């Protein structure tokens, strides 16, 4: 059980684990076992005793059935000693329902053992059931009929607790079968022998069509009905043009995995299908059609396929155990989420609402989908302001809301701007881009995109613009303007291409990416040396690909013309060695070398399952694959697998019945001693191109492959959602997650219009055409939603290898993989815009537009770029810990400010986040981020800093750094700027730190616009509100400040957003146990400079929890402020408070306590609070869907002829819903500083 557990070092993404720690909510696995007569196929003596020592399998020690019986028992026995699986998974067993071993009407499947929790008692129960099977008598488990598809239908009914089923069994009475809150997993163990026939001869297709029409309501001929009833082509078995005969298991697997269960009239959950083919690998080709069928079931079912030799009991039990671990990991991590909202900040806003999105990978893989979408505001028939989509026109009348009040997300039928099913590019699939991964309201189409992150929006425009890109040497050849710097610290104003045509980038590949050229083996190969079969080098033209092995001219022990052809799949030579990972050379001669493999017999021929294709340098093989599909460029390396076809030439021994068949080469045993044998490769002479060998291509991880993958080429072979196939080359995951980054929006006006700048955790910072759809929305030929350019910082180059491989898993709560690593971040912080349109200024920023990019957990760095021409970005400067040693992770957004004492604008920010804060509770002092920084906006140099450590700071010519009186805790939050005298210049700033302190910085100390220097600026601790133990409050978000005639009201909410989960651990200081609060602090020092000797306010100076039922005047001189306890256990502030019309809005979250009856993924309870800071009156509503609500956005928007005030994310019911705040017409309060752009 995971009850009350979480990582001691956490992040806010832990909340998206979606773990419901209730014991009854563990993942469910149903084993479906092929008990047809062909499982009696004879095999040599393989399993003579179960792993627990209880005897031999009852179905025989030399049969496939006995081997499979033994492997299942052994896999279950192994669960006992695995703490990550024991009691953490349910397993059941189903077989074909025939003969006297049956249930119901004897049709379809028989649920022999309902899914049961695999604690020790459960394991013993299922093992005993399997051990008791017999192959004799009237109750033999064996059947003469195969019912793969019909049994899949039965499994669907059983796993969903249906009252009606193909067999007639009522599964609703078996409570333990229902899969409760989780999707289930089916593992089909199928026999694939020469006499196998995986067809049904039953009604699997009719049952499926009945399910589609009667339960899901899909009309015959409708898109959904046609999609799920269409036959699937399987090589060597059937083609999509026939009636599909009896092979409907793969179509059932597709339906079970991909159908939208919200359309079902029953309480259905999806099912993922894995398959394990048990076959005699020595005669595999004769069973290849069946193997292909089982592999297609897994492909369509979203799982994995395994191929196991009938003699390999350990191979089958290991495959089962692999799936058990996979299932437990999949069902322990991540629920979907969407955030945040940003609006076009141009005074009175343009009616454009941009939503940056992300979807965590449900397997905890590091590659997450993301997107940027655009919506708009409108007034409904009741004159309420709502969020609506591209299909409505708010300027001409009432609109409808496109938020979902049930889920808290966007409505499924919503169509965001830019989203279309006809993007106007050649080769766009008429059947939809997602034809192989249908989901949501639109199934295989992008529109409507609804709440699906990957569909529509900027992501679709990027896919469309790079649909069939060839990824040649330069951006001009594929249309994507992807830029970088060639080395860390090596940026020039003219950025360089991130492409294989960048010679400097390619030359530094091993340092930048951690990948290099393919290794080769030369004449130094000798006895006792380990060797690994590596990738072959490929030279490509437009129609075929020719592979040459990169051996040195000196022969490594192979005679001229010798060929090694092996398949890259399994290597189970009884554990001796695998060619893909390395074997040891035992003897070497001029024409042969030997190594040891166990468990073989003299005089027999055997297939070698793992490896690549080796040829002498003068030998080549042609791969019949179009250049646009095989994913290779000239000079790339690749691995060949699954090779089929007839090659010219003869085997020397004459033993081969299948020349070059199935990608294997036969070998002749030349000698044997105690389960070992020596062999040499048979000679063959290939004459090409008279006979071609057809192969799949698996690109090696080289610099060129990695660069092209980053650019968008689908060549890694591990996409979670499959694309449409040739001629499309773009990968579906082209747009990564936009997690914490709040996009910045600039209205350039004129012919340009709106541009959106934002970073994503695919490593790419983007500039996107933010205009709405229309003929006049293009920017220099780039359509609305299209990418103008993108940028990759060289600090991030080394992180792409992990994204390419999509491994190792993310270190997140609930993931038990020992190789897990923290999630990688890139430009994950918010972007700041400086746009200086002042006509009278003498500042060097006049007429310029600059952007400033921060990384949050992505690093200790800030990048600045000149985007005055939005099509031609120029590098401006970068600052890291090398320039400011105290700089932490750049969480704090640099705020643009104009000071009365300086000509050029400055940036004001906190010094950053310290990794010591990741511990829960915090165990050591912060080592970085301790202070407040003011940077020159043009040069990045430090104008002023109040830092715990001032050594090594890169100061401006008049710059000052003070450490006396500076913060000693990290300042990760944004800094709030205030123009108290309304002269257009910032007078002071307020900052909050992770120690619970609030600071005031005075920047106009003499007042009245009198000249000052950085040496005159001063920092003072205004309030000390933290402490030890459960008083260890943190501020991770900026305070809000409202100036009044007699004081500045400073509102701040404490909370550790980075530790969002529930725990039963009562250790003082853990985030769940800390008492968090909303504060209103009165700063009564309204002059230009804080008085000398000011003592910071503490809780003793503040009123505690004002009585909500009584009248209270917080403006009274006797009141110095107040605080209100957040009322729920574990509740914490998770966004920045915003005040509008006398009301302060902020959001919180607290975790729900686990409930065995709950089927809601625990995103916690999210509350929207409204505080009247004058009276202390606090109200709240609940955000639907929970999660971490983004900071509210307020402003004025033009809707038709009206100017309407709004706040998004202020009061719900969803975080997307806007409302109209009640404007309080009072002259004694005004807003803090807003920089005019």
UniProtKB/TrEMBL annotation:
Pfam families: T4P_PilY1
Highest taxon above the source species: Bacteria
Keyword vocabulary terms for this entry: Calcium, Metal-binding
Domain PilY1 beta-propeller: 823-1003
Molecular function terms from GO: metal ion binding
Protein name: PilC-like protein with beta-propeller domain
Gene source species: Azotobacter chroococcum
Lineage, uppermost ranks: Bacteria, Pseudomonadati, Pseudomonadota, Gammaproteobacteria, Pseudomonadales
